[in-house]
Write a structure and sequence with these properties.
InterPro entries: ConA-like_dom_sf, DUF1349, UCP022704
Protein name: DUF1349 domain-containing protein
CATH architecture: Sandwich
Strand content: over 45%
Organism: Pseudomonas agronomica
Number of helices: 0
CATH topology: Jelly Rolls
Distance between the termini: 35 Å
Helix content: under 10%
Shape: globular
Length: 202
Amino acid sequence: MHDEHNTNPCGLSHGAWLNEPKLHSAPTTQTLDLETDDATDFWRETHYGFTHDSGHFLGVETPSSFTCQLRIRGAFEALYDQAGLMIRVNERQWVKAGIELSDGQAMLGSVLTDGQSDWATSPYTADPGDFWMRATVAEGVLRLQVSSDGRRWPLVRLCPFPVAPHYQVGPMACSPKRGGLKVAFSDWTLGPALGKDLHDLT
């Protein structure tokens, strides 16, 4: 059956791959399933000294301000298995945010990269196998939020972010220590920046 929603330019079906995985579904407006290739990652320099730009990312072009959100379901089993959202200006300026397995525990983390990567991480107490991420970019500010149910959205990170005429945003997944991380992305939305108060968690 023809999916009339695939004509939506904000849908995942209009995304462009960076490092397309060998195994993935055809993206629809709101969904994508994939299985990661071996030894995939996004990281620049800090602490480890290496630069990796081999992770999987399906990017949808946005205007200069936007809000996007996405549901992520994954089976995180190996060290550094990760999946979530990515917002990208270029190979030196990007952020990724979601669940990452570290020290045997599923952690909620974000990596902000502007020439070099940082890493902010904390334990995630809800179900790490089924969660939501939301990102809002406007006027040089990035706001990241997480949700366990798609209704309440606590703050993950508020930080400066490079101003650009447009961005690439969408699902991201990596597995630096193996291949075969299976992730189901769904409920994708992309629209104008919400402009909500910082403590409005709806």
